[in-house]
Amino acid sequence: MRERFSSTDTDSFSRIRAKGAPRRGRRSERFDDNEPEVVFRFDDHGAYTVAGDEYADFDGDHESHDGEYENDDDGYDSYDDNPDDNPDGGPAGADRWSTWDQSTPTEKGPEPRPAWVVTELAAVDTELGLVKTGKEADVFLLERGVPGTDRRTLMAAKRYRDSQHRMFHRDSGYLEGRRHKESRIARAMAKRTAFGKEAIAAQWAGAEFTALCRLWSAGVAVPYPVQITGTEILMEFVGDESGTAAPRLAQLRAEEVDVEDLWEQLGRSLSLLAGDGYAHGDLSAYNILVHEGRLVIIDVPQIVDVVANPRGRAFLERDVRNVGAWFVSRGLPEHRVGELVGALEFDARLG
Q1: Which candidate, 8, 43, 260, 333, has a CA 20 to 30 Å from the CA of 121?
Q2: Rounded to an integer, what distance in angstroms lies between the CA atom of residue 24 and that of residue 70?
Q3: Cα separations in angstroms, 132 against 18, 51, 215
Q4: Would the CA dihedral through 113, 117, 122, 125 be positive or negative?
Q5: What is the mean pLDDT of residues 179-205?
Q6: What are the DSSP calls for 276-342, one per residue?
Q7: How far is 319 from 166, CA to CA, in rounded Å?
């Protein structure tokens, strides 16, 4: 197993554990025995349903319906620190069996799937370490492979945090234009109850997965979305086979890249995105990766419907100007940024 995950960003990346070391990443999410299990399922429009026992009140009027995690003294979820203790009968030498069969057809990536996607039910998942931390979610490096064969691939596992440790810092603006058909769930989300926060996490995860599927199919430069289970999204790992992640655009110097070519790549992807009626919503040089000259846009949970959202035009323009500042500082003529804003507004039929 790899000893180290290489990265130039020491603040956001962490070292890979040696095989057999304690797994702080194996989270044991245990609800009280009397609490019903809540399962979020997504349809092909990114909407979700709640499976499990009926809930009398999603808006928090009855606290017994809010699932709570078992916490250690440090305030964080309890973890299984013994890698050899596998009470669930999981695979030896791995963290879990492949979750491929746990996703419905609409919770799997678009076809035709890339050849590297491992769909065999005999496959196992091994967590190799933390890739990046964020306010709303953490990203882990995960290997899925079939034991005894060379069939294996690296993926990025994006996991939205539980209600105790999540910090959705701009929910209200991005959620405009998104409404849940269940009024009780909508009330819980508005009140930010424990269940409401779980519903928000499910909505963000479902929105991101649906967006990735749509954008990948449209030809936008985004990671291929493999599957979603609950609030975990498995997607293409953008990096090399050794587990070294591609650098973010913000990390690169002008002499390391072809600025003009990257600007053209960005313009093509944003044009496809706008033509489909969307804006990234939080685009900057920090959520664009560059791998071997290929530009890849990441982090799209807040994707904005520029028509349904009353601030859609402002989000679209802000995206271009935020990332455009990086290009201008590296020699791109400033007027090119304004030209791209106008072109995208036309593509989105906002002009």
Answers
A1: 43
A2: 15
A3: 19, 31, 23
A4: negative
A5: 62
A6: TTEE-SS--TTSEEEETTEEEE---TT-EETTTSTTHHHHHHHHHHHHHHHHHHTT--THHHHHHHH
A7: 24
Distance (Å, rounded) from C-alpha 289 to C-alpha 252?
10
Query: Exposed (0-12), middle (13-18) or buried (19+): which is 200, by Cβ within 10 Å?
Result: buried
Residues forming a β-bridge with 140: 130, 157
Question: Worst-scoring range by mean pLDDT, 81-85, 88-92, 95-99?
Answer: 81-85
Q: What is the pTM of this model?
A: 0.72
3 state SS of 135: coil
Give the residue-averaged pLDDT of 323-342: 97
> What distance in Å separates the CA atoms of residue 231 and residue 97, rounded to the nearest whole number?
18
Backbone φ, ψ for residue 239 (5° rounding): 170, -165
Distance CA(2)–CA(17), nearest Å, equals 8
Q: Are 2 and 114 in contact (CB under 8 A)?
A: no
Residue 148 CA: distances (Å) to CA of 55, 122, 124, 145, 152: 45, 10, 11, 9, 10
In the three-class reduction of DSSP (H, G, I as helix; E, B as strand; rest coil), residue 171 is classed as helix
Give the list of residues 6+ apart from residue 2 with CB closer than 8 angstroms, or none. Answer: 16, 128, 242, 243
Q: What CA–CA distances, in Å, run from 84 to 1, 4, 22, 80, 81?
A: 16, 22, 9, 10, 9
Give 260-281 pLDDT, tens digit per residue: 999 999 999 999 999 999 999 9
For the segment 220-227, the average pLDDT, to the nearest whole number, is: 98
